[in-house]
Design a protein that fits this description.
The chain has 177 residues and is α/β, with parallel strands linked by helices. The protein is built from four helices and seven strands; from the N terminus they run H-H-E-E-E-H-E-H-E-E-E.
């Protein structure tokens, strides 16, 4: 009788190794793709002032604030200021159904000429708006155009400095309504 190898030893000899190279290639390509795609993502932030709730009385101010408020209604933008609140300008929508942001901007430039130190505006949307519409309204409130007449104000040292923004501090008046 001859020698017969046990079946356990034979089974071990026939095991095949798994080729991991294609799996590692796929993982490295996936990691490379993720690293390359993060370069194209840009996040923008639009600053907005948050009103502070306090039980203490507000500080005494020498100069009465303008109290500029822009109310966004379904058919118009309503600009009001001063206390008690008075409507100073109603800007209707264009014929194409869009808000007339150039008329709003021109009116705000005229206000900025009178109140050069004022930076605060309250934005009160009374209707549901798309995000893009709110951003366009905010841009027309905040930014000076290159075609606008340059405005100057005196800084702390008494030197004339150019005003680069219209009303840069925007507060949302009725977020919970």
């Amino acid at each position: 009788m001859g020698y017969k190898t046990p079946t356990r030893r034979k089974a071990k000899a026939n095991l095949k190794k798994i080729n991991l190279i294609p799996i590692l290639d796929a993982v490295f390509i996936f990691i490379f793709f993720l690293l390359m795609s993060t370069q194209f993502v840009k996040i923008f932030e639009i600053g907005s002032v948050v009103p502070i709730l306090s039980n203490s009385p507000p500080p005494k101010v020498k100069k009465k604030p303008l109290g500029l408020t822009i109310t966004i209604k379904k058919n118009a933008l309503i600009v009001s200021h001063a206390k008690p609140r008075q409507i100073s300008k109603r800007i209707n929508k264009n014929s194409d159904g869009q808000y007339n942001l150039s008329a709003l901007h021109d009116y705000l430039v005229g206000l900025k000429k009178k109140y050069r130190a004022e930076e605060l505006v309250i934005l009160e949307p009374k209707v549901d708006l798309k995000y893009e519409v709110i951003i366009h309204i905010m841009d027309s409130i905040r930014m000076m155009n290159k075609t606008d007449d340059p405005l100057f104000k005196k800084d702390v040292d008494g030197v004339d400095t150019q005003i680069k923004t219209l009303f840069s501090k925007i507060i949302f008046g009725n977020l919970m309504s």
